[in-house]
Amino acid sequence: MAIQGFGEIAEQLRRSTVLVQPGGRGSGSGVIWSSGGTIITNAHVTRGSQANVQLWDGREVNATVVSRDLRRDLAELRVDAPNLMAAVAADSSQVRPGELAIAIGNPLGFLGALTTGVVHAVGPLRGLGSQNWVQADVRLAPGNSGGPLANAAGHVIGINTMVAGRLALAIPSNAVSSFLSSGPSDAWLGVTLRPVRVPRNARKEGTFGLLLLEVGPASPAELASLLPGDILLGTEETRFKSAEDLSQALRGNGPRLLRLEFLRGDYERIRRVTVQLGNERTVGSVAA
Known about the structure:
The protein is mostly beta strands. The chain contains four helices and 17 strands.
């Protein structure tokens, strides 16, 4: 079915989509959320406090990471640039199965690539907790993360995040609005992680853990001597059952200490470390 003005709708959406380069390997996409310089992307796209952003017209600007939320996998960036074309956010609670879905992003280095499909469902997915997802059969590839999923009017209904089976999963636009209204957070650990089951030879066989894939330079995690390959088990008070539990443990503002338990090496001995949070950080970052 032809959509009147589809070319113009797609072009407007492209102009509201940016390339996010966090430094080092990889890149992702982002959405200009306000003409004042707010850009939304995934938390896993931006690992540090700064990033480089390329706009649709080729301009490159520096971006500051204002806040990140590991649980929702969202990050807020701020840039200082004129003539930004902000996207229009839709009410994701009104999205229904069968609607047209348009995804824009920068997969595999192709800037402003467009793909279309239909919405299959809106709601939680088994194995991914209680979080709602806009689920659509659009084709995503590395580099699409953080880009917009829009409806037939070009209004953003979600932020593309991952692929599950043959469906693309996007964080609903209403979750983005909630994230932005919560304000900056200085709950920054400075790591990239992945949920795992503790290896069989560990003392706590079968328990949940968070494997550290990367530790950022000069981050609270590095200053506490945490290393890639360590597995976070929890705090001294509680065991982690999901990545959200780490987000909860990190929340707060101002200088404070967090005592974490983790495994290293042969995973036979539970180790403990004290992490300094909220130290000399005027803009927030992420919960992990």
